[in-house]
């Protein structure tokens, strides 16, 4: 039984969205499963004394172009959301509520729904009304979803996830850990595939 | 006649070294030539209000691992130099002296020699005696090389190269520009290859 792939992501991270579209198929091809972990990049940036790449104007210009090009390269639909980036704690708390109460499949379906809503239709996951409507579209009970993101238990669960990410050395997203080996970035896809296919290199 | 590939690099950049090992063969496969441009990353970091990734301890830990893994992935020999990073203005001035007086081929040979010396044998390019010896090994006149890096003309040429890089939006290395399209990072290799093979995507 091969170890699952840990996948740390933030709902507002374009490269996490793109990776979210290919990681399951790649994992399945190599007999692995994926364990998603929603986190807040702002918290891990801060712990590592980093800032978001898009907070630097010159880097932002490149990044905005690269997000779209990288999506086209992976044949993933992408429409740059505005405003961007957004706070994603409510979407992440719903993720942990689903993951801990229903399991990985339900949580992964919500991750996919949230990513696609934000990065193809600009649905503002930070706005409670929009997030509630999205929960309904995704087949969840909208009231229960709202109660989850307001519940101290799931707020605490997300904090713990951030702490665990920091302890694991996560400073950006997507961040994968496979057999103890860290891979940061959607652009580590070729190295991840080689690792899965033939082991450490 | 297809446009050449602009390749901005710093002699102390591991990902630039790795890219330097594959870019010529890839360019040749697609009927392109490469125009190298030695710069000082410290200057472009500063212009973009960035710092080196290895100046952040948590990111550094990952980067030091990723440099070596990325080199193995590309089957390029790599021995982490120490001290690292180092100031590379003298090596870069020798590059511009060769490029402007003898042409791209001589400059590219020096780039290869400098990168390989630093990243496989830890030759400290920042130490005049070591750099002079390396110039001799690389078939240059060591005295002429030393005169070049002390010559205000080549100091000025490197400054101009840094200014041109900043004007072109360069904030890290390796940075490639192909048909006006910017690609930052050794890890943009698959996208670069697709662009060269089939054009814009």
Structural summary, described in words:
2 copies of one chain form a homodimer. Chain A is built from 9 helices and 4 strands; from the N terminus they run βαβαααααααββα. Chain A is an alpha+beta fold and about 200 residues long. Chain A has a 4-stranded mixed β-sheet with strand order 2-1-3-4, with helices on both faces. In chain A, α2 packs across α8 (about 150-165), α4 packs antiparallel against α5 and α6 crosses α7. Chain A is globular. Chain A starts with a strand and ends with a helix.
What's the quick description here?
Two copies of one chain form a homodimer. Chain A is of the alpha+beta class.
Fold blueprint:
Two copies of one chain form a homodimer.
Chain A: E1 5-9, H1 14-29, E2 34-38, H2 41-47, H3 57-73, H4 89-101, H5 104-121, H6 128-137, H7 142-150, H8 152-167, E3 175-178, E4 181-184, H9 189-198
Parallel strand pairs in A: 1-2
Antiparallel strand pairs in A: 1-3, 3-4
